[in-house]
Amino acid sequence: MITTEHMDRAILPDQRLLRAYDRLAPTYAFRHQRWLRFAGGEAQAALEAAVRMVLASGSTILDAGAGTGQFARSLLSEGFPPEQITLLDPSRAMLEYCDDIPVTKTLGRIEEMPFANRSFDVVTCAWALEVVTQPDLALSELCRVLKIGGVLCLTFCAQAPLRDLVDWAMRSAVKLRGTGNFLQTFDVIAALQETMPCEVQIMPCSGPAATIIARRLAA
């Protein structure tokens, strides 16, 4: 089971959390860039580098918890075919900020995704696993839609030694809003290995964040 750091305020229930992200949508890109600049940049860079290494001609990719679609925009700018990208997010307001991206966009929860088993070659989930109220169920769904031989790329807020006052401030802000949590990295790995046969690699990065890459093996 994926456990979280004790928090003074619990993560918001599903509907309240969804409303919170709907309200954040207009400023989400700015806030997210600030988070990456001060706390999560290394983890995000590790995820994006891993995705670019494993993407092959014809690969299909799902970005689960896509937010305002910044990573998809980056892939498209590099020539990746839009018909091979699918974005999923539970916030309609977030997806409205993806209207300019010519890819498949799906409104839905990571814990209950409307896709067939083994649909995608690459599945990414960045800064979303720690937000859902049932991370074990979300992880199970991410594995379910991944093809054999496919790669799951996870980036999330993680329990880690604080480097400085900035780390403390960013972590405190997440806790105060109730819009996230901090997961135990090795709990996530254990849950992955219980859910599907896989090879797992922890990408090197610092700060209160982690990036994990898991390749699905044949049973």
CATH topology: Rossmann fold
CATH architecture: 3-Layer(aba) Sandwich
Net shape: globular
The CATH homology group name? Vaccinia Virus protein VP39
Number of helices: 6
Radius of gyration: 16 Å
Derived from helix and strand composition plus strand pairing, the structural class reads: alpha/beta
Helix content: 40-55%
How are helices and strands ordered from N to C?
HEHEHEEHEHHEE
Biggest sheet, strands in spatial order? 3-2-1-4-5-7-6
The percentage of residues in β strands lies in 15-25%
Q: Which spans of ≥5 residues are poorly predicted at pLDDT below 50?
A: 4-13
- Say how many strands there are: 7
User: According to CATH, what is the class?
Assistant: Alpha Beta
GO biological process, one term: methylation
Keywords: Methyltransferase, Transferase
GO molecular function, one term: S-adenosylmethionine-dependent methyltransferase activity
InterPro entries: Methyltransf_11, SAM-dependent_MTases_sf
